[in-house]
Amino acid sequence: MSAVQTPSPAQDDTRRRSPLAEVLFSLMRSRTFLVGLFIVLFWVACALFGEHFAPYDPLADDIINALAPPSREHWFGTDQIGRDVFSRVIVGSRDILTVAPLATLLATVAGTALGLLTGYFRGIVDDVVSRILEAFMAIPVVIVALLAIVALGTSKATVIVVIGLSFAPIIARTVRSAVLAERELDYVAAAQLRHESAFHTMFVEILPNVIPPILVETTVRLGYAIFAVATLSFMGFGIQPPSPDWGLSISSNYGMIGGGFWWTVLFDALAIASLVIGVNLAADGVHGALND
Q1: Burial degree of 62 (CB within 10 A; 0-12, 13-18, 19+)
Q2: What fold does the segment set 31-47+75-290 form as a domain?
Q3: Domain spans of the chain, in order of start
Q4: pTM of the predicted model, to two decimals?
Q5: What is residue 214's predicted lDDT score, i.e. its pLDDT?
Q6: Cα–Cα distance, 224 to 205 (Å, whole number)
Q7: Which of 176, 67, 39 is nearest to 115 (CA)?
């Protein structure tokens, strides 16, 4: 007669973990996520406390030292009016890390609501709303943003609203697909038999079960939002002077590259790239943890 095998402590701990604890445990084991999180947290720290450890005032000009190359005094050199590039890169993360996350949050809230609405009601509601969303998605985000900003005026609030509403249809499509699958499950039918309202069924019954794809889509959209904000600032329709915003700094100094003053643009471009890469790595880690 074979002996009864008892579960090991490790197996017992795994069985006792809640789904949330399992996801967090997977994230902490993901090198991709941890590297991405480290990069993002570095720039968040710069946004919050950059002014305290930046060696120079990022807005103070010094014409005498204009276009000085990288040196011990100015690690990243100076720009065309003598401002310290290193200080501007450090402090310049503040605006982009304010506007992009708020735009992503707005996109997530609006997209989730639209996705729940179209996926749950289907029929004519789905047809009408989906056609409108598809029309918006057919136009490049930057084009939509430019048209809206020209009409509404340039401000941080306008950029947040424009980018948020531009990304909402993409999130709505993802949520709609998840809701269509969930709608056919027994717990939704049970809620309908209890005569629960459509609002209760969508936001109390279905929404908690479609959180994973929403989280993944949100982290991915954050990377796109950062790039969109930097692009609009570069074109003069995003963050406005005298902010040390990265995209704005690249736009102001772009003409200096031809004269050999590469440092006025390079470090801001690397900052944007590193932040986008960090967010994408974190998004890949979240996706992997939720699919384990």
Answers
A1: middle
A2: MetI-like fold (1.10.3720)
A3: 31-47+75-290
A4: 0.88
A5: 94
A6: 30
A7: 176
